[in-house]
Protein 1
Amino acid sequence: MQLSNIKVPSQQVSFLQAVRIGLGEQQGLFFPTQWPQLDVPRLLDMSFVERSSHILASLIGDELTAAEVQQMVEAAFAFPAPLAPVTDDVACLELFHGPTLAFKDFGGRFMAQALVKAQQAENVRKTTIVTATSGDTGAAVAHAFYQQPGVEVVILFPEGKISPLQEKLFTTLGKNIHTLAVNADFDACQALVKEVFNDKALVQQLNINSANSINISRLFAQICYYFEAVAQVPANQREQVVISVPSGNFGNLTAGLIAKVLGLPIKRLIAATNANDTVPRYWKDGLWAPNKTVATLSNAMDVSAPNNWPRVEALLAQGLVGRDELEAVMVDEEDTQLSMRQLASLGYVSEPHAAVAYKALKRSLQPGEYGIFLGTAHPAKFKEQVENILGSPIALPAELAAVASEASLAVSMNADYVQLRQALLALDK
Ligand SMILES: *Cc1c(COP(=O)(O)O)cnc(C)c1O
């Protein structure tokens, strides 16, 4: 598979090169210019791991053998993605059964597998991963790479702006996982990471890679659970599927659009955002006008300049996705809480991110359609909020209970590039 840089089309790389470099010249994103044809009905009859191996092998092409890809998928996708019915025509695709209880485990763990292959292919001895997290990426990346030889991980997060339990999932590991609590918001953390990638000398010296959702391996991995969702829909309703995606950086939504481009029957996708509604406003009036990021209940979606949007634009420009196949819906704080209470009254306990997607879905769903909203995190990850909003206690799963009492090892810093650069150089011993 040949990928090209969306901003600098002359920069062409293979899949493994894209995995290792992360972000291209001029901060351009790598993206395929052609898509494989898949035998979708046959794929839908397969198991999750077998089907995902086929999809990823077709996307990657001959750079890795089918057996290699299957072994990577088996290691990465070691937990299910069940479709939990909420009503007759609505279900939640639960993507939170991995080790850090969020959908980012799928992308993070597959990327860890892909990076091993990329290091082998290019004889790289050591890689430094620098990533910004608005909550769940940090945990997924930290766990995926924890104690992996030849990899140092540096995670930036907005201090005090993510849930305490989210934070504990990645700041308590230590060893090759280094965490920096930045006194700023997520967009500022993301801007710092972009500065790192613009610093060519540093990138070369430390072999720096980003594990953000801009990494193509994460995006490819996420395509697979859309197929898993449709495979669980009763056959007579498969032509009527509408999927609502709680969106922040829009990696998840991009993966859904790619699944559709690959032939998966999805009638339409809904990009559901919180009050950080750059995309819903843009979709309506055509003006790209990010506001200052505001803090919301669905904090992993507090992003006003989503970094995967150029990939969505590329699919639109190539005519692969039509305007009527995508909707963009903003759900405010009041409706998010209302949505959680409505779900609870239907017997389904959820959390703010999924609740945003559920509300957007309910506003859009037509009679005869089958709606799926993505459950991107386990409700216990947002225990305080969920208990406050629903007024009833929820239990901590074992993964969270274990870290809740451990001390954070994060180091505080200002949003200052010079300070960050020094911290990174200190790792190169
Ligand atoms: C990261 C995250 C999102 C947003 O996903 P994007 O791919 O960045 O749009 C939504 N919900 C949760 C729980 C997340 O952690």
Protein 2
Amino acid sequence: MSIADNISNLKKETEHSNVKLIAVSKTKPVEVLQEAYNAGQRVFGENNVQELVEKQEQLPKDIEWHLIGHLQTNKVKYIASFISLIHSVDSLKLLQEIDKQAAKNKRVIDCLLQIYIADEETKFGLGFDEAIELLRSEEFTVLKNVRIVGVMGIATNTENQKQLKEEFYELHTFFNGLKTSFFRKEDSFKEISMGMSADYKIAIEQGSTMIRVGSLIFGQRLIPHWKNN
Ligand SMILES: *Cc1c(COP(=O)(O)O)cnc(C)c1O
């Protein structure tokens, strides 16, 4: 299967669900991204700032770049002029720096709050309470150059479908709560970024609006799992 085939299959499979496909191209060389671009893909996700900047410089300028991995505050300045969406906001401090760099570039940067949903030890993501505390804080309300457009979550790396379903359900429910409490009047607060190669189907069933798919598009798979059923 070619990259073009993989993208086209994913698009066909998800067209009924109004979900945005983010091609996660981390570690892949620009030629490979160009191949996806030629197949019509315009949204790419990267998790490393330096790699993202290098690729952005070399590839067509109508690409929408998403940062999906952990972002250090001292690196925000490198992507602030062009980044379309930062999925991985996990602290007020980071949000303040994004706001500052966005202002320097005279723009507003869209962000998702990364919410911790997995049953795993991980360093990144906000707990439900922490996210609420951030949104309630005086420091957050004064920020003018960032816009929170939704939430992002990474489910546990497990084949337990019931558990995946519960984790995605929890994130959707939390999103609904935030919508009601903080963003009732903001139509832009509408994104739930959840689902990767192994679990995007369940994520879509649970209301995902953005799936972040890497290996299923770019990786070698002898039997792509959409052919298994
Ligand atoms: C790598 C990565 C993905 C894509 O993973 P695949 O299993 O290759 O689809 C999605 N989200 C995040 C945050 C990632 O780091």
Protein 3
Amino acid sequence: MPQDKIWLSSPHLSGNEFKYVQEAFDTNWVAPLGPNVNAFEDELASYVGTAHAAALSSGTAALHLALVMLGVGPGDLVLCQSFTFAASANPIMYQGATPVFIDSEPTTWNICPDALKTALEKYTAREQKPKAVIGVHLYGMPARLDEVLAVCAKYGVPFIEDAAEALGSSYRGQKLGSFGSLSVLSFNGNKIITTSGGGALLSNDEALINQARFLATQARDSAPHYQHSQIGYNYRLSNVCAGIGRGQLEVLDERVAQRRSNYDYYTQVLSDLPGVTFQQEPADSFSNRWLSCITIDPASSGGITWETVRLRLEEENIESRPLWKPMHLQPVFQSAPYWGGRVAEGLFEQGLCLPSGSNLTDHDRSRIAEIIRTLFK
Ligand SMILES: *Cc1c(COP(=O)(O)O)cnc(C)c1O
């Protein structure tokens, strides 16, 4: 009998989700608006520390609306971290704009401030000033925000913060999701908390968040009949799903502690393996450790690669996953410009995400560690 499947990152409910969902049913608020949506938005904004939040149907929808509101259109350039999930970059294409990919720096694995500066300098000199910069906090690790925000400010380009993986993380004591002109969260099933599917757009600018709600509800002008002066979207979060989110938000800090404890465990039992290194947390940063990630250098590990480990874990019914394949290496983005060196490529060549759910048991974790240690013997 194979043992139970261990997932990379699966939903972990608290019990209270159902209370809020039940309320939605009892009051017949089964619609993409309602009391759970309003409360979830307030609770999110207050947790993250922004003035406003709009609950949306996905993180991708939030990124798309951010670009729409910044006026990104055909022919515009948008600079975007290359080392990320495709959802960071796809909305640039929805707008008919051109993505320009930027390498990562080796400490946090996020957007490299130097490569970003070079690109902004060159495009500005050519009078092709980019419309926005999209930076990501991969696996929950805060980007080098001081440097990145300073570069964006210098060139007057708004920063869109893709904090989809980073709810609960902070930088210099301030929660991620509060650093962008517009910031994005995701509540997909595999994220640190989930609404089954959903996302949010956050900002201190009330006008922008009101506009996001308007665009996300089919851009209906205020008139008794249906009148439209702009193109709208159907991007609002369901009141049922928002109920799940409210229950999840109550246990977010516990989930962060559980994920951080996974990371601590893995570093304790795997750090001595030759060629194995972990994603590091700088002193000014606090990561939610959404996923615990390692790199394996086959030159030091005796030829063992991330794929050796992944396949061995798979045989034991355990899911692990390579690090994101950089966007500038993706077939669909092959003609997009790229600035930087080989940091993102190197991480992709050597990296693996270990099972990291907040619901992993001690037994699960020791099983995983034992399998990996045995491989290295
Ligand atoms: C999950 C994710 C998204 C997209 O969020 P969805 O809610 O799945 O649309 C965007 N960016 C990053 C970095 C993500 O991990």
